[in-house]
């Protein structure tokens, strides 16, 4: 017995778009694709989808779920990694709460504010564990050193540069531009420059990062806040850019 993609989406409480994305990501292939391109799913697909949705509810990203389903990582190991990330995030939020409380108290009492108190918990190190896991310790160390050497003005300018890139992606998508259009590829080039500086990126790096933007809401939100669907648009634009590298 088979079910259409619409039926599966309705039964699972998800969307056809999500199922198509799972297919593109290699997580959930349909058991059959009709001549008209419609996807159909058999019972084995439904069992696999049930496991995917369970792991998503537990907070795992698609790359981690893929590793679990491929047998490269056990469910327990993936959840332990996710637990460490949650604990790290909890610690960061606790520091932010403490920082805000300290700012309120010192302001009300007329005491001088200490920068270390104001900014405690608002640092990039919350991504340390994940960056190390994905790209290695050296990548995190280089990025951490580079960020700490920037002045406050340079950090602000760097963040504003990214905001401008994300807004331009959103505007291009709304205007109907294709991911491979020249104007979109120019924006993608700016993004790549923002990401890697003078270091030439590899195709694998760009493809993996694009998929991360599309699959992980934490990263995709940085684009989708400028317009729903922008993260997927950026992923497709990065795929075109990666395919043209060296050509």
Brief write-up:
By secondary structure, the protein is mostly helical. It has helices at 5-12, 16-25, 43-57, 62-69, 75-108, 115-118, 128-135, 137-149, 152-174, 182-196, 203-215, 217-224, 230-244; strands at 3-4, 32-33, 39-41.
Number of helices: 13
Strand content: under 5%
How can the largest sheet be summarized?
3 strands, antiparallel
Kindly, what is the distance between the CA atoms of the first and last residues, rounded to a whole number of angstroms? 46 Å
If you average the pLDDT, what whole number results? 80
Strand tally is 3
Taking strands numbered 1, 2, ... along the chain, how are they ordered across the largest sheet? 1-3-2
Structural class: mainly alpha
- Give the fraction of residues assigned to helices: over 70%
In terms of per-residue confidence, which ranges show pLDDT below 50 for 5 or more consecutive residues?
115-122
Shape: globular
What is the C-alpha radius of gyration, as a whole number of Å? 21 Å
User: Helix-strand pattern, N to C?
Assistant: EHHEEHHHHHHHHHHH
Short descriptors:
13 helices, 247 residues, mainly alpha, three-stranded antiparallel sheet
Task: Summarize the structure in words.
The protein is an all-alpha fold and 247 residues long. The chain has 13 helices and three strands; from the N terminus they run βααββααααααααααα. The protein has helices at 5-12, 16-25, 43-57, 62-69, 75-108, 115-118, 128-135, 137-149, 152-174, 182-196, 203-215, 217-224, 230-244, and strands spanning 3-4, 32-33, 39-41. It has a three-stranded antiparallel beta sheet. The chain starts with a strand and ends with a helix.
